[in-house]
Amino acid sequence: MLLLSACGFAAFWVLVAIYSDRQLSWLAVLGALDMVWMLRLGSNDRTRPGGMPRALAAVLATLAIVLLANWGIIAAHLGGDIGLMPWESVLRLGLHHAWTLAQLANGVLDLFWIVLALALAGVLGAR
């Protein structure tokens, strides 16, 4: 359930970012809140109490959202320039090229939102 939610939120982020032609890194915070909420929906305190395992799951799911969304945004922009559909360019984008473009696209404020989202996922996921 958590993986499906992370993929769905990343897809939402990609669509909104492409539509607005911005990186929209503040959506990482909403993604972190969504992951914490999904973890709480999928478990109760007797079967999976809060603490380090749930916090780690929330942080890893939030990190997955950030990575998938950035990969998708980069691939969609590159694919559009050469006539590919976004889902076609996602499979053709190389890791080194994506890393270079992600560094160029994400500024200090974007990194702030991402770090805030990961910290928020860790703190709220542990409860």
Features:
transmembrane helix; mainly alpha; 127 residues
Structure description:
This protein is mainly α and 127 residues long. The protein has one domain (2-125). It is 80% helix and 0% strand. The protein has helices at residues 2-20, 27-42, 52-82, 86-92, 95-105, 108-125. The chain is elongated and about 50 Å long.
Can you give me a brief rundown of this structure?
This protein is mainly α. The chain contains six helices and no strands.
- Mean pLDDT across residues: 91
Strand content: under 5%
Give the number of DSSP strands. Answer: 0
The SSE order reads: HHHHHH
Uncertain runs with pLDDT below 50, 5 residues or more?
Answer: none
**Share of helix among residues?**
over 70%
Distance between the termini: 19 Å
Overall geometry: elongated
Integer-rounded radius of gyration: 15 Å
Number of domains: 1
Largest sheet: none
